Amino acid sequence: MSLPILRLFALGGTIATMPGDAGGMKMGLGADDLVAMVPALGAVATVRAETVSKLGSSDLTIDAILALAARIEALAGAPDRPAGVVITQGTDTLEETSFLMDAVLDLDLPVVFTAAMRNPRLTSPDGAGNLLAAARVATSAWLRDHARATGVVAVLLDHAHAPFDIVKSETSRVDAFRSPVTGPLATIVEDRVVPLAMPVRTWKASVVAALGASAATALAATPAAPVALLWGGLDDNGALIDAILAAPDRLGYRGAVFAAFGGGHLPQSLVATLHALHAAMPVVLAPRTGGGPLLRSTYEGAAFETGLRAAGLVFSGRLHPLKARLLLSLLLRAGKDRATIARVLDGCG
C-alpha cells in the first residue's frame, strides 16, 4: 500500500538551528535536514520537503504567511494534491502565524503547524518528536475527515490545538504551548491520533463571508494595512495614542487594537483619547488577559463595556489582542468598512 504524500514547508526557527560560531545556535537547517532528523517519517508518509526560509519567527511577516497560504490554497485544487501539509517555524510567533493562516484558508486539506522549544543540541530536543506528531496528525483520518471543521491546527508536545485558542505561555519551557480556555483538540498516543474535541468556529463563517473563500490568494496581492497594538497598563498617560493622532499620516497605521483591562475597561483618563482615535481609524478592544470573552452589559459608565460599546468601539469577544490585530489588518487590507469589521470581530465571542 502506497504512503500518503505530505508537503513540508520549512520556515526556520529553533527546530532548524545548528551550532553557531560563538557557542550559541544559529539558523541554518533546511527542510531536507529536518526530514533526515526523523527516520520514522518514512513509515508515515512520502514527504516532499521545501525550504521556504531560514528565519527566526520574529522575522516572519504577514506578507510571507499570506504568500505561503496562497500556495497552499493552490495545492488544494491541484492534480497532485497532497494528503496534508506541515509547516515548521519558530515558536516566537507561532500562535500568530497559525491563526493568520487559519483566518485566510477555508479548505478540506489538513494544514498543521509545528515547531520546537529545545534546540537540537540540548538534551531531549523536542523538534523531531513534534515533526513526527505533526505528520501523523496531518495524514490522519480524523483530520482528513474534519479538516474544514477544524481549520488549521498546531501540534506541539503530542497535542493538537486550535490556533484561535493556543498561546505561548512560557519563554523556554518545553510545555510552553497551551489552550488555556478550551484544552487541546486531539492527543497523539503511540502512533494514533486520539480526538478529544472539536473547536467552536462560529467566528470563521463571518470571516469567510467578509473575505471570500479564496482569501489567501486575493489578500497576498494587496498592500499591507498596518495596525497598532496598544496595551493598557496602570496609569498610562496615552502619549502613544496622542502621537498617532498628531501625525498627519497616523504614523502609517490604518487601525488599532487596544488590549483592555478586565472584561473590556479603560481608565477614565483615556476614554476621550480612544474616542478620538476611533474617529480617525477603526479601534478594536481585546482582552489583555488573553483568555475569556469581554463583557457586554455588566458595568455602566463611559470607561466600561456598556459605554464603550454604545460609543461604537469594536469588541473582539474572546480573541487575543495579538490575533485581533491580525484579523483587523486582514479586514482593512481587504477594504472592508467599519460595519463589516464590527460584525466580524463581534463574531469572535
Task: Characterise the protein shown here.
This protein is α/β, with parallel strands linked by helices and 349 residues long. It has an 8-stranded mixed beta sheet, sandwiched between helices. A 4-stranded parallel beta sheet has the order 13-14-15-16, with helices on both faces. It is globular, with a radius of gyration of 21 Å. Helix 3 (94-104) packs parallel to helix 11 (321-333). It is built from 12 helices and 16 strands. Helix 3 links the parallel strand 5 (84-88) and strand 6 (111-114). It folds into 2 domains: 5-202, 3-Layer(aba) Sandwich (Rossmann fold); 223-346, Rossmann fold (3-Layer(aba) Sandwich), CATH 3.40.50.
Count all strands and give the number: 16
The arrangement of helices and strands along the chain is EEEHEHEHEHHEEEEEEHHEHEHEHEHH
Strand content: 15-25%
- Per CATH, the architecture of the largest domain is 3-Layer(aba) Sandwich
Tally of DSSP helical segments: 12
By CATH, the superfamily of the largest domain comes out as L-asparaginase, N-terminal domain
Major β-sheet profile: 8 strands, mixed
Uncertain runs:
none
What's the helical proportion of residues? 25-40%
The number of domains: 2
CATH topology tier name of the largest domain: Rossmann fold
- State mean pLDDT (0 to 100 scale): 97
Strand order of the largest sheet: 4-1-5-6-7-8-11-12
Query: What is the alpha-carbon Rg in Å?
Result: 21 Å
- Determine the structural class based on helices, strands and strand pairing: alpha/beta
End-to-end separation: 45 Å
The CATH C-level name of the largest domain is: Alpha Beta
Shape: globular
